[in-house]
Specification:
This protein has 11 helices and 8 strands. With about 260 residues, the chain is of the alpha/beta class. The chain has a single domain (about 1-255), classed as 3-Layer(aba) Sandwich (Rossmann fold), CATH 3.40.50. Strands 1-2-4-3-5-6-7-8 form an 8-stranded mixed sheet, with helices on both faces. Helix 4 packs antiparallel against helix 7 (about 175-185). The protein binds D-malate (MLT). D-malate binds next to loops.
Length: about 260
Amino acid sequence: MNTLAIAGKRLTYLRLGTGAPLVLVHGFPLDHSIWEPVIPFLTDCFDLILPDLPGFGGSDSPEPDPVIETYAHALADLLSHLGLEQTFLAGHSMGGYVALAFARLYPRLLRGLALIASQTVADTPERKAGRYATAEQVAAQGAGVVADAMVPKLSVDPAHYPLLNELILCQKPDAIIAGLRAMAGRPDSSSLLSSLNVPLVLVHGQADALISVERAREAAQMVPHAVLVELPEVGHMPMMEAPEQTAAALKRLTYA
Ligand code: MLT
C-alpha cells in the first residue's frame, strides 16, 4: 500500500497497471480490498488507483461529522498528489455517492463515471433516521451491529460472507459512524447525472438486496448515452460476484 498525508491524516491507496487512470472507490463499510477480484482483468488497460476512503482500511478517520463531499475532496487531493489531471472514476454504492459528489465538485477532473450497485437519489426520511439509529448502535456496540445486518444482504452467494464479515469487523467504529452520517446527509444527484457529458456506465446486480436494480434503470433513462449493464443472479457486490463481467463493463468507459 502507498500512503499520502493530507493535513496530517494518512490516506492509503494501491496503484497498479498501465493505461488511462481509473480510480475504484469502495462502498460502505469496506475498503480497497473488495476490488481484488477485478484487478487481473483491468491492469492491461488502466492505471488503477484503489484508495481506502478516509477512516476505512488503512486511512485515518476524517474530522468528526464529515459530509459526502469530504471523501470527494480526499480523492481530489490524491489525484493532485499523483499529478493526474483527469481520471475515470468508478464508485461502488457509497463510493458511487462519493463519485457523484466528485463529479459535482471537480467536473474538469472527470473523464468518465461508473456507478456500481449505487444510486443517485438521496435518502428518504425513514432511511436517514435508520442510519442515525445504526450510528448510535455502532457507538455503543461496535462494528458487529453493521456486519450482522449487512453481510447476508451483500451477496446472493454465502461463500462471500466470511470475507465480508471479517472486512466489516476490521473497520473502525468511528469511520462507520462517520460514513453513516455522511450518507444520510448526501444530496440528490439525479439532475447532476442528467447533465453529465462524460461517458457513464452503470453496473448493477439484478438480485441486489440493498439497492434495487430499478435505481440503475431510472438513472440510465436520465442519460441518453449511459451504458447499463445488468448482471443476473448477482447481488450488491458485482466486483466479487461477477468480476470478469464487471471489468468488461468498466472497460466500456473507454469506448465512448
Ligand atoms: C454501501 O454498500 O456502500 C451502502 O450499503 C450504501 C447505502 O447504505 O446506501
